[in-house]
Amino acid sequence: MGTGTDLHRPPLDAGRLRQRLIAPGGLWRDVRVVPETGSTNADLLEAARSGAAEGLVLAAEAQTAGRGRLGRAWSAPARAGLVCSVLLRPAGVPSARRGWLPLLTGVAVAAAVRAQTAVPACLKWPNDVLVGERKLAGILAEAHGDAVVVGIGLNVTLRPAELPVRTATSLLIEDAAVPDRDALLVAILTELAGRYQGWRADPGATGLRRDYLRRSATVGRDVRVELPGGTLLTGTAEDVDDAGRLLVRGGGGLVPVAAGDVLHVR
C-alpha cells in the first residue's frame, strides 16, 4: 500500500475483537470501542480507581486529549491509527520490576507489527517503537495503587501531512502490507497477553530481556539523556537491568536511568 492510495478508514469492530480476544482463562475480560474520548489512559485509570478488574481493554477511534510521556500531546486523525489502553494488576510482581511493563509492551507491539506487516520495527528506550529513527508507536504506562494502565498509540494509515511531528512515520508511509486494524489490534493484544502472563508468573525470566535487547535500537548506541530536572547525561547505552532501567556508561561510570528523554547520537 503506497502513500498515494485513496484511504478507506473503517471503524473497529468491537464484536469481532471480543470474539477473537476473550476466552476462558485468558487475560482479556472485555474489549470496548468508543468513537471518541479525551484519553483512553485517563478513562481506564478512573476505572481502576473504581475497582475494575484486570483485563479491560479500551480502544478509541479518536482522542481529544491524548498524551505521551512527559506530558506531551498526542493526536491523530480518527481511525488513522490504533489507540488503546489496557488495565493490568500485576499482583505478586515486585514493584521494583514493574518498570519492565512499558518495555514488555514495546516488545509485543514490535513483534506483532513485524509479523503482520513485515515492517522492521525496533525499540527506543523506554517507550517508543521505531522504524529506523522514525517513531511508529508510543507507549505510556501509568500506575494507580496495584493497577497499571498501559496505553498504545500506533500510526497505521497516516499520510505525511497528517503526522504529528516530522520525525514520525506510519505503516502506510513504510509501504507496509497493512492488515485491517482489527487484525492488527488482535495480534498486538495476543502478543501482549502471552508476554505479560509469562512475565507475571516469573518476573525474573531471562526470555523477555533477551527479546527486548534483540529489538533494541538504543542499547549499544551513544546517547544523550535529559534526566528529570534538566540534567544531561551523555555516554553509551550498555544494557537494561532487572528493573527496566537503561544502563549508560559515561565519564563517571555506569549510571542506571529510570526516567529520561533519550536522544540517539549519530
What would a concise description of this structure say?
The protein is of the alpha+beta class. The protein contains five helices and twelve strands. The longest helix has 21 residues.
Topology:
Blueprint: H1 14-21, E1 30-34, H2 40-49, E2 56-60, E3 81-88, H3 101-117, E4 122-124, E5 128-131, E6 134-144, E7 147-155, H4 181-201, H5 206-215, E8 222-226, E9 232-240, E10 246-250, E11 253-257, E12 261-264
Parallel strand pairs: 1-2
Antiparallel strand pairs: 2-3, 3-7, 4-5, 5-6, 6-7, 8-9, 8-12, 9-10, 10-11
Order of helices and strands: HEHEEHEEEEHHEEEEE
- Helix percent band: 10-25%
The CATH superfamily of the largest domain is Bira Bifunctional Protein, Domain 2
Overall domain count = 2
> Main sheet, how many strands, which sense, barrel?
7 strands, mixed
Alpha-carbon distance between the termini? Answer: 31 Å
Major sheet: order of its strands?
1-2-3-7-6-5-4
The CATH architecture term of the largest domain is 2-Layer Sandwich
Structural class: alpha+beta
* Coarse shape: globular
Query: β content, as a range?
Result: 25-35%
Rg calc: 18 Å
- The pLDDT mean sits at 93
Query: What would CATH call the class of the largest domain?
Result: Alpha Beta
Uncertain segments of ≥5 residues (pLDDT<50)? Answer: 1-6
